[in-house]
UniProtKB/TrEMBL annotation:
Source organism of the structure: Lipomyces starkeyi NRRL Y-11557
Protein localization: Cytoplasm
Location of the PCI domain: 315-498
Gene: TIF32
Residue numbers spanned by region Disordered: 587-608
Keywords, alphabetical: Coiled coil, Cytoplasm, Initiation factor, Protein biosynthesis, RNA-binding
Name assigned to this protein: Eukaryotic translation initiation factor 3 subunit A
PROSITE patterns: PCI
Amino acid sequence: MAPHVRPENVLKRAEELLAVEQSGDALNLLHEIITSKRTRNTPITSLEPIMLRFVELCVQLRKGKLAKEGLYTYKNVAQNTSVGSIEVVLKRFIDLSKDKVTEAQAQADRITLDSIDDLEASETPESIMLSTVSTEQSKDRTDRAVVTPWLKFLWEAYRTVLEILRNNARLEIMYQAIAIQAFQFCLKYSRKTEFRRLCELLRNHLQSASKNTSQVHAINLNDPDTLQRHLDTRFAQLNAADELDLWQEAFRSVEDIHTLLTISKRPPKPAMMANYYEKLTKIFLVSDNYLFHAAAASRYYSLRMQAKNITAADATKSASIVLLSALAIPVINTSRFRSAIFDVDESKHKNVRLSGLLGLPKAPTRASLLKDALAKGILTRVSPEIRDLYTILEVDFHPLSICRKISPIMTEIFKDDGLKRYIEPLHQVILTRLFQQLSQVYDAVKLDFVIKLVTFPAPFEVSSTTIEKFIMNGCKKGDLAIRVDHAANSITFESDVYATAKGATDGVVQLQPTPTEIVRTELSRLGKTLFATVNLVDAEYISSRAATKDAAIKRAVVGVEEEHKAALLRKNIIEDRAKEAETILQKREEDESKKRALRQQQEQLAEQKRLAEEMRKRELDRIKREQDAIQEQEKRKLADEIISTGIKLDLESIESMDTHKLREVQIEQTEKKNKDMTERLRITAKRVDHLERAYRKVEIPLLEKDYEKQKETDRLLHAERRKAQLEASRAQFEEKVLLKKRLRRMLADYEEFTERLLRQ
């Protein structure tokens, strides 16, 4: 490209190419000037219109790679001087891409409607033949041909813009806005694969931002506002994952949010945390982790009850969900069995990790969640059927009627869409309670008797296969000690008094101690009995104990003052050390903040100096370019003026001449032109003088004749006017004489009236 070509001329040339339908050449021309090194010195006000036209052509021709290269170059040029211009160009790029997708959808709908010739015909022969070799509908094929390319382009546009805006504090607000728009794109068009890639992209950007904190304009995650914007984006990501049913991505989003919350120094908003725990309840429920689902529901309930606008119905429903989710936690673990050591280690690590997400110091248990629910007074707020269910499962002891009592409650729970999801895990809890309570009453029972006890109305039936599978799983986990005898069609509960169960009766109301418990506690009971007997029978033992007690009390009284003083001294020492440590820490933080502030000030001064130097250089270059352009313009103008006078100039001679030489040529031609004009005017004036004298010689006789004729015409006209004036004067005189005569008759009355007025 020639050195003297300006951005305005390039834009004009591109418009001329577009006018003759050469869009590709126009795009290449704009791309060439945008990626040129000389563009760095071009003013942003001149470059922005070129960029807007460039992105329009890129979208129109679906050239994503060219758009990405041009936008990266423009960002590097404008990020130090005009951030707003970058936002305008990128927003225009995204808006145009979205408009193209909308137009493609409308076009696909029109194609689908136009292809239907007969509205009454259900299928055409072509559609029947096509359906035999393809499962796609006509609209699906149309969308894939028309809409899908533009959807792909819009997705690439979002990725490109996010890559351009990442890790830049000046462009952070727009980065978050584009990320939220990308989530809405995935929701609107149900793009699950693109949503996963988008989440991974944002996660990589965040990791890169946390590592590259020393770069210019790097994102500072310690800034509360910046961290809050990242939290808002992650919550939007979590909500989108929830709507798309991508629970793995939802869980990873929860982990991202928890990481940001641990960094944040500002306490999160209650509404934000309520949304956090609500999504966790859904994630744990989908993953069949009923323990942590109940824990998340409890946390969500605590935040929900802090709201001022909660109604009694909402409070009852939330309390019912919390208590029912805790009751539905299986007593027996239903996960697939693996080696004991591996299962315990992995389970412990997983529980610690999930407890951290919920903000719990340790992993919850079923008993702790029920205890916490009762401590919150949830039992008074729940619906009656949930309260009855708690009483049946956790308080009463009724192995022969437990299922019969729970059946109507299951029916009521099934009617509520928010509670019926707990019916399946409740079956496991009911069976566990049934076998644990039966083991305290019976040594062996018939299998048919157990099946008869476990009778629920439709659709809650439990088959014998399910019961047997449950027994085998409980025995494998060590929670049940039952043998199934298929020959006798019976089940036998463990009766070995020396066997150690895993805790099959934990949390169950017991009617009487089991033989195992009797043997296990026999020595402790014997010791307690002997101790009580000695206290009652041996007087010396009793007196020695009393003396020992008195001596201990005396020693305690003597040493209590010293211990008190020592405790106060230790307290003072600890407080002094704490104050000293706090002072040292505060001083260290102040020193670090001063160093950081000084370093930032030095960096800002260096950056300002660099920007000022670049600005000065750009200003000098701009002034020089403007001077050259003005001289070139004056040179062209003088050349055009000279050429307009009729003088032919060679283009090579024009390029070799400067403005002074052209001005001398112009002055010379002007003087020559003026001299020729003066000579022509002299000759013309002489010719006009002779012609005028001839005109006057011929005109004199004609003027005399005209004068005589005019005198005669004036005399006749004067006579007519004089006659008319005399007649008018005569008529006026006569009218006035008549008026005098009429008024004279009134004169006597007038005089009499005047005298009467004077006498009065």
